[in-house]
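Lab manual, section 2.4: Encoding a predicted structure.

Procedure: take the sequence of the chain (419 residues), apply the prediction step described in section 2.3, and record the output as structure tokens. A sample record is shown.
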Amino acid sequence: MQAKDQIGSFFYYPSLAFHKAAGGFGAIRINSRPRVPVPFPPPADEYTVLIGDWYNATHKALQATMDNGTRLPFPDAILINGKGPNGGANFTVEQGNTYRLRISNVGMQNTLNFMIQDHNSLSVLFTADRLPRDYHIVVSTRFTNQTLNSTAVLRYAGWSIPAWGRPPVVNASDVDFSLEQARSIRTNLTASGPRPNPQGSYHYGSINVTRTIRLANSAGQVDGKLRYGVNGVSYVDADTPLKLADYYNLTGVFKMGGIADAPATTNGTGPNETNTDTELQNVTAVMDSDHRSFVEVVFENNEDTVQSWHLDGYSVFVVGMDKGVWSEQSRITYNLVDAVARCTVQVYPRAWTAIFIALDNVGMWNLRSEDWTRRYLGQQFYLRVYTPTHSFRDELPIPDNALLCGQATNSSGLPFSLY
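Recorded output:
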């Protein structure tokens, strides 16, 4: 694992089948190297905060629910660092000090809001500059028909005055506020990056875009059961890992080009309006792409729920987002200077989000919904980043002790491409 190029807060979890619902997740901190300063004074301390929805049912029962063609139910609780909804978790601070919170949503399907009573926070830094006592920390669902809350306690050291007053609340469906907040987060162009050079030294906005991909999420039924898809395609797992199938040139495992670069248009009112109830097809879909190309991807959400998308193997530049229908004229609103690099992006209801990707990492990469119901029921596909040169500089060979399975079980020796 090369950790030097992506400093920040991350979390790990099992991504196959429905294993994520059984737990097995945790936090990863990747710190800047000692000689590369961060753009703020060192905090007095750091806390990892893992928040997420919780179900009383087992992961097997939840999986069976979806296998029967039904969405996951509303969760039973929200957990903060594994603790229940009534102040089970607590964080102790010294008055006057500034602290860093590393917050990750490790849940299955809900957008979550995080607030500290009577404290202002910028990014994940906050200063304990209030009267010394206990304060509520509140995590609540957003963009849902009903609101679920969970609380923890921020405790000033040396004091035992309990928190009072009602925990703070947030408008659970204010898309405009969320859009403005998301667009206000920018990269500090003068701060040091993972290497000793400013973060703004990579001018992504001046690179020529070689391809535009528009991806529209949709819901429908296949054989009478609920499925989700992208551009009319609902992904189904193969009996062989796709990277092994590609490496050993096994045919019939996946469909290259199985997903189009744009959704099918309908007779809607907008110029690019897509039909969320379009007929879905079950396909083990792979989209092909060229190594070192620079791609624009537009996520289009014509549904009434927030969408969350994740791309393995890459950080992307989130250059734009807005309500309504995306068009080529939307590009005039793009942030081409100081957009934030992320690997997971949100798309608000009846809205779009645009990203730029420098495809510099050869491989077979999963692009999926982070709503685990949608991901499990087909809202994902694989992006193959290909180069014909097969250089060890671009991709290392398969390890000698790699476990082979599926149709690759009896494969041996070098593959056809002679890596």
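Check your result against the sample. Residues 41 and 98 are 9 Å apart (CA to CA).
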